[in-house]
Amino acid sequence: MTTQTLSSPPARPSFAELYTPKLVTVLREGYSLTNFRADFMAGLTVAIVALPLSMAIAIGSHATPAQGLYTSIVGGFLVALLGGSRFQIGGPAGAFIVLVATTVQQHGMDGLILATILSGLMLMAIGYLRLGTYIKFIPYPVTIGFTAGIAVTIFSGEIRHLLGLSFNGTEPGPLVEKIPFLWSNLSTFSPAAVGLSLASIAVLVALRIWRPRWPSMLIVVVLAAAATAFLKLPVDTIGTQFGGIPRTLPMPALPAWDLAKVQAVLPNAISFALLGAIESLLSAVVADSMTGRRHRSNCELVGQGVANIGAGLFGGICVTGTIARTATNVRAGAHGPVSGMMHSLFLLLFILVAAPLASYIPLAVLAAVLAVVCWNMIERNAFATLLRASRGDAAVLLATFGITLFRGLTEAIVIGFALGSVLFIHRMSQTTAIESHVPLVAEDMPDDGSRGAYDETSQQDPTVVIYRISGAFFFGAASSIGAVLERIGDQHRNLIIDFTAVPFVDSTGSRTIESLAHKAAQRGVGVYLTGLSAGVKKELAAQGVRPPLIRIAGTIEQALRQTQKERPTPAAPATIS
């Protein structure tokens, strides 16, 4: 005789299991010299990619190229050291350019650094509250829409450097004001800057097609800098605009702040935290899909939070997981987080040794790099597919895209998420149905001849009405189902509701049944619930849907037998006072 034991539910992960950095996990597995060589080469490869991008993104964000490098050095090191992903590469990201530039215009550089530090504290709080798993519920059309909107906005901000425009005053931020302003100053374009931009884009595209493994961005930046220096091209460079790059890291320091300043930058910090959480976890998911590994989402957010605080203290800008650099890290054969730490150390080495050479880098070539990044950010196939998929998805996509362009990223995410949620509720409500006059077989099984024949007498009882609900019984479907259930004829003395096909009931659905049961009791109608799962039964009981208000049976057939037993005999008819 064998005994069978019920398996206990899996134990809840401990705090240490949830928040142990992946670096610790990798070292526990055993870290060899071969692993270090793989991480060393991967870190060098990623640093070559990150060098021009960090400077270009910082300049596009109205910060200095040095701040972009500080962000990759300090923030990237802390992301690898404390994060929950084996392969995540942290640094400045193109998705933040619009938000960072807007913050600089509104609150100055001190306000930006303060908002970055506050966003780090928020990311840590999100991680420790274990909210990281909910970030994945951002609808796909929202993600595609705001990414495309960001790309267009970033490109519009690089038109000035692509064309070498010169003008007095400040370039407007909103797109509807920026385009007319740039058009009015189009006559100031620089032929040298235009030629350099077009040549850089052409070389970037050519290298991507014919030599995809080569560090195309670094090659283009080096060639453009050499051409500018030797040919003495009349274009703006990092040296002429920013005075070059310091050869050391600054000392950590807090920006000037007070309570009023914190309140002023708080909305910007919330935007940084929200976008940072989405971008970093999306990057970690991409790395997981490429490697078959699994990241720790909440640990990753804590690491991202510490990285933003660290970057802010060293004068950097927002840090997040970067999808392109993380994918490059994986393809380069990285073994673990040490590659991300090496990438930061290689960038630090560049500052210590080769910072003076950065003065010759023209802004036009960095704008060309960002233009190519923007083109790659727009997932054109996904955008077109969503437009064709359904009207609902297309509406969410276009609304998010338009609001990102003409209002702002925060509003786009919030409104897009709200529209996506409404669309989901509508679709879920359509999948929930109610069926009346349910045909019966013995034990309510399929009438295939193997489990009993069709019971005709059960359908001839005029005092019993049977309904079967299928699908999630939640607030989106409660009103329509409740209206059907309440249409009980006066001749019916018993109502049977079958929940066999109901996987989930929320409080609104439970209250619908509770209200129906009370009305039925006032009319002397008995209510039987059948096929309740443990979760559904618990939720109904929490709202008061329990005996003696209702009766519970395993199947419809069992409920019918109960109604027959409780039916009064002709010799003792029920009297109505």
TrEMBL record:
UniProt keyword list: Membrane, Transmembrane, Transmembrane helix
Primary subcellular site in the record, as a coarse category: membrane
Any Pfam family matching the protein: STAS
Ranges that cross the membrane: 40-61, 73-100, 112-131, 138-157, 189-210, 217-235, 269-289, 301-324, 344-373, 394-419, 465-485
Gene Ontology cellular component terms for the protein in this record: membrane
InterPro entries: SLC26A/SulP_dom, SLC26A/SulP_fam, STAS_dom, STAS_dom_sf
Chain ranges of the STAS domain: 454-563
Record's subcellular location: Membrane
Ranges in a coiled coil: none
Membrane topology field: Multi-pass membrane protein
Single biological process term from Gene Ontology: transmembrane transport
Protein name from the UniProt record: SulP family sulfate permease
